Amino acid sequence: MSENEFEKCVSCGSTHIRKFGNVYSADGLRKTQRYQCMDCHKWMLSKKKTPVKPKTMKVGLGAFKYQEQPLPETNWSALTKAQNNEKTMLLDIAKEMLSELTIVQDPKKNGRKFSDVKDMAFCLIAKTYTGLSSRRLESDLRQAQANEQIAKVPHFTTLMNFLEKPELTELLHELIKLSALPVKELESQYAIDSSGFSSSQFGRWFDFKYGEEKIIRNWVKAHIMCGTRTNIITSVELTRAYGADSPRLQPLVEKTCKDFTVKEVSADKAYSSRKNFQIIKSNGAIPYIPFKSNARIKKKGLMIWRKCYEYFHEKPQEYLEHYHRRSNVETCFAMVKQKFGKDVITKNYVSQCNEVLLKILCHNICCLIQEYFENNIENYYSTNQQKISIPEF
């Protein structure tokens, strides 16, 4: 390909090379062209670095300028204590949360009884946090049994089979909500976004336009709503790879508003619709979502759309300063993926969903431990036991 800097792959010598976006420097002022060999999938970077113009976002008659803000000071003492005690406290908190749940089983179900649900959930939380395989995890589980955190160490095959149960999904959703409750007084501004967790499965098709076979890795898409101060995740919705973002806003907002005080909700243009503006307003919050270029001021019976549209165009700087709290949701996804992995290892869709929920649950507990040392948040939960109906166990 004559327009490419690389005529052939440096690894396999193939000439089937294509451009794949840019890689930006840490300060965002320079970018480098990225290439990939379509035969051996080797990544290559250009030696030429191109300067990048400062970002501006034109809105109406004005332009939004990114304001330089001082970085928040890190409380190194609290951070050190949180990191030093994180694993021990995480397992204790997981045990405490599970003790607050009452599992309602179907009395009419026949057959062999399954292993204790709470013990299995505890073992999966430990597996997700440590990143160990189910076999290598057994020594850690024997230590947990000695500490009376579980009654019995399950077989590694039993543990992985439990991950495929759809009833576990409901249990994990409740645990995620429960893990976020202690910091509800610290949060009032929330953000919504989605991101994918790639799997080991691939989708293949033939592209007639370019006359070649294309391959893409499948993924599970997680839609989350998180607090912009503590990065705690309050509600989650999971879809397959190409699940639309906009329809997921309503369940995320409604679940969060049941247990948390929500004053502001920020999201990107994918959620910009009259219906979503009205959903946020009806739940007592103010939407800060930028408008698409083809959006019009017509309210169509929804005054909140007209008011936000006028606010967006008359005071873009003020409006977008609220909107850019949404950047914290990107930070939240980065925290989850860097610490617990950006991939799912199972092949069953239900198992993949449960894997993602376990990553998010571990992230929430880690955020809770951090707030415990920084803001003296106690690890307490409601004395009213949460009842979950799981008829299949």
Characterize the structure shown.
The strands form 4 sheets. A 5-stranded mixed sheet has the order 9-8-7-10-11, with helices on both faces. A 3-stranded antiparallel sheet has the order 1-2-3, with no helix packed on it. It has a two-stranded antiparallel sheet with strand order 4-5. Mean pLDDT is 86; it is low at 380-393. It contains 11 helices and 12 strands. It has 393 residues and is α/β, with parallel strands linked by helices. Helix content is 38%, strand content 23%. α7 links the parallel β10 and β11 (286-288). The longest helix has 26 residues, at 349-374. The protein is globular and about 60 Å long. α2 (117-130) crosses α11 (349-374). The chain has 3 domains: 1-53, no CATH class; 76-182 and 344-389, no CATH class; 187-329, Nucleotidyltransferase, domain 5 (2-Layer Sandwich).
